[in-house]
Amino acid sequence: MVTAETRATxxxxxxxxxxxxxxxxxxxxxxxxxxxCLYKIVPRENADQNLPIAIMYCDSQGMLQDRVTAHRKxxxxxxxxxxxxxxxxxxxxxxxxxxxxxANYVVFRTLADAVHYGTTEVYSAGAYHDKIVMENGVAxxxxxxxxxxxxxxxxxxxxxx
Length: 161
Description:
3 helices; Nuclear Transport Factor 2, Chain: A
């Protein structure tokens, strides 16, 4: 039985996660994960066939921080904004201090370059499958598996989903 407090904690973590990305506060993004964590973006086709190939793979908070550094300093990409819609958040249960949850997501990308400024497209749609733990009294993602139904990414995937 999942308590209302647990459900609210999970929903708050999901909402904080997407606002962090949408508000371009990526430096805070790794802090939403436990010190020992896993973040993967996997095409649905691979997930359905249990194939291990991920589009993005980070197996520690340090790798998440490196991803943000690369995003800010090394990657070249067209200016854009993300806007997430998260729905159908479901807390599946809790066992040994690990909460399992899932949700659907859609990410809209609005281009901000001189030629295409203001053009919005559906960039990715799929599902989040998460394991959440409490670390020092704060909910954190132990594992965030992003299963992307949108397998064809129209440009370089530089920003987390």
